[in-house]
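Appendix B. One record, verbatim.
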Amino acid sequence: MHDVVHDVAIFIGSKEKHCSLRSLEASPMDSSSKDSSRSCNRMSIDISIKNARLSVGKDYLNLRLLMILNSADSKSCEGFDADVICFTGMEKLNVLYLSSINIRSFPQTLDLLKQLATLHLEYCKVEDISVVGELTCLEILCVQHCGNIKELPAHIGRLNHLRVLELHSCKNLERIFVCVVSSLVGLEELKIIKWFDKWETEGNRS
């Protein structure tokens, strides 16, 4: 079983402390919610309502696994602002799972997740994943059905601990430079599924 699937399966069936929030609005949480959130190590958040906000800070210091998803159709989050998701204070996070999130770029605070080992993206509108190259402990990067990604950026080559790279059904992916993949010294498994046959060497870079 793929590690990210394994992690999510554990999350769903776990008896450990976790929170499941259908929506997290911009208004402050009450004291009882804050007390509960401080002890959470696994959390799922549905952002399918407008004005949803995840502002983490000191209230989620123990999180290890976070799922952010949109259970409705993508139009319900049209124009969703990446900056309303704040990862400050989540330095212990190990697994981040994003599904059907209509954002064009990652939150600026993503690079704070220095202990993140698994990043899974599916059906997201993100166009540039360069900031992922700052996640120096990342071991698994899985990108599925993200149709706006056109190139595997050079910054990904910085991920010396990356063991698994999966690019699945990213229909507009145009270029992967061989030098980027060859820089991934710890890579054990590379999966590129559907809609890609355009490997390029450094000399082909325009």
